[in-house]
Amino acid sequence: MAVPQPEPNKPNRAPTADEVERAWTDPKLANVLYHDWESTTYDEKWSISYDQRCIDYARDRFVSVAGDQGWPYAEALELGTGTGFFLLNLMQAGVATKGHVTDLSPGMVETAVRNGAALGLDVDGRVADAESIPYDDANVDLVVGHAVLHHIPDVELALREVLRVLKPGGRFVFAGEPTTVGDWYARHLGRLAWQATTTVTQLGPLRDRWARPVEELAESSRAAALESVVDLHTFDPRELAATALRAGAVDVRTTSEELTAAFLGWPVRTFEAAVNPERLGWGWAMFAYRSWQRLSAVDRGLAHVLPQRLFYNVLLTGTRPA
């Protein structure tokens, strides 16, 4: 299946109004446009790194839903890799030995392969559609993804493809998928934080030091329009598990995370996107991270008593029948 491409396209180039208009009826083109545009700044936007902080984060997500048995997986493939955040950090944690990074966005694949090489990891990459994965049957031991399923038009078809490329007994792990309830409150929090921050930072005494340039805010608004096209799904954890079972998976399990942490995280991320980044230093980054850690600990306790659907993220795992 051909992957739709803008003409022409360069990483980190903001999509034109004409391209956005075309993307409204083509979510795969929207994904290419949006993620190519973000490919060189994505790590900064989401505070992604490849140090112990994010190694622990990726490892903990994996363990929370799939445990720590069977490591290292000999070959792992990531769908919707972005800049490689999930798989590269899992490899550094010892989860997998060799990695294949794939994404609809050529800019993201290029960035992920470059990041893997810089870390000294055994990684290759391909531009790939999750609904038609360009790898042979029974080819890999592990398939992972982070915040990818909600971008895929046909999730069940993609999971069938995942099971096809997995070896018998191979495992898949998807993390960072928005629940329907969580997405509702996250978007409302983000919208309120954006309006408040952009209004306050345009006030006279703050404008020169705290406001982002108007052209950058305009680009962010255009990207936000595309985000509404590329974000195709939210999930009820039970329904997501049922989809995996229909696709042919066994040993299916879901878990969820981030409730109070999401109520902090989304306003914080929105604030960071709306202000001059030069005003936010290491102290701010550590404040945000430590606060998120503390609230995540609270959420782990709440997970024992509250329904999964109330949390922001759902995680999914399963295996190909042996």
Account of the 3D structure:
The structure is a single chain. The chain has 322 residues and is of the alpha/beta class. The chain is built from 13 helices and seven strands. α6 links the parallel β2 and β3. α2 packs antiparallel against α10, α7 crosses α11 and α12 runs antiparallel to α13. It is globular and about 65 Å long.
Proportion of strand residues = 15-25%
Contiguous uncertain segments of 5+ residues: 1-10
Query: What shape does the CA trace take?
Result: globular
Neighbour order of strands in the largest sheet = 3-2-1-4-5-7-6
**Span between N and C termini?**
29 Å
Query: Residue share in helices?
Result: 40-55%
Radius of gyration: 19 Å
Q: Order of helices and strands, N to C? A: HHHHEHEHEEHEHHHHEHHE
- Largest β sheet strand count, sense and barrel closure: 7 strands, mixed
Mean pLDDT: 90
Number of strands: 7
Global structural class = alpha/beta
Number of helices: 13
How would you briefly describe this protein structure?
The chain is an alpha/beta fold and 322 residues long. Helix content is 50%, strand content 17%. Helix 7 links the parallel strand 4 (140-146) and strand 5.
List keywords for this structure.
322 residues; alpha/beta; 7 strands; 50% helix; 7-stranded mixed sheet
List the helices and strands and how they pair.
Layout: H1 17-23, H2 27-38, H3 42-45, H4 52-66, E1 73-78, H5 85-92, E2 96-103, H6 106-118, E3 122-127, E4 140-146, H7 155-165, E5 166-178, H8 180-200, H9 204-210, H10 214-230, H11 237-247, E6 250-257, H12 260-274, H13 282-302, E7 313-319
Helix pairs in contact: 1-2, 2-10, 4-5, 7-11, 8-12, 12-13
